[in-house]
Amino acid sequence: MDLLFFAYLLMQLPTDFQYPPFFDSLEVALRVLFALAVRGYLLLVITGFMVYVTGLSDGFGKFLVIAGIFLYLVGPFIANLFAQAAGFDPITMEMAKLEWLRVLGMSDGELFSILIVFGDIVAAICCLAGAILYFTPSSDDLRSRGHSLIVRSLMFAPILIYFHITPWI
């Protein structure tokens, strides 16, 4: 009798399976990861460049740039792989766009333009502060620090120009 009851339970298990309640939030998290990988990788790259230009943390700035590039290259594949393993439909670009708009409330172009304006401000401040430090005759350390800030802000300028021009290309 016990063997028959156990076989009956095993036969009913696949048809009566209830998904855990976190499955809905898992699907939303995978959609956000896909949207970030397809549309938001530039957030990490530009923020990494801004951190690098300021000279506050060179390692963290480089990490953000590398993480943004890695997310762009591998993120969509990983998000769709996890979605397929969880039994969800493959995530499409339309789903990613809708999730991006739902989470952030603005399009990616608007967010990138705001970030580019902040990048312009950071580059201008670093160039100005570098010039002030460079021309201050008090010590050689301030002169080298000013030179570093000027060079970094001038290296960041072509990247900002590229992002200013790309919407019209």
The chain-level structural class is mainly alpha
Could you give the distance between the termini?
75 Å
The residue ranges in which pLDDT falls below 50 over 5 or more consecutive positions are: none
Count structural domains: 1
What would your notes on this structure say?
This protein has 169 residues and is an all-alpha fold. The protein has one domain (21-168). It is built from 7 helices and no strands. The model has no long low-confidence stretch (mean pLDDT 85).
Please give a quick description of this structure:
By secondary structure, the chain is mostly helical. 80% of the residues lie in helices and 0% in strands. The longest helix has 29 residues, at 58-86.
Sum up the structure in keywords:
169 residues, mainly alpha, 7 helices, 80% helix, elongated
List the helices and strands and how they pair.
Layout: H1 2-12, H2 23-38, H3 41-54, H4 58-86, H5 93-104, H6 108-134, H7 140-165
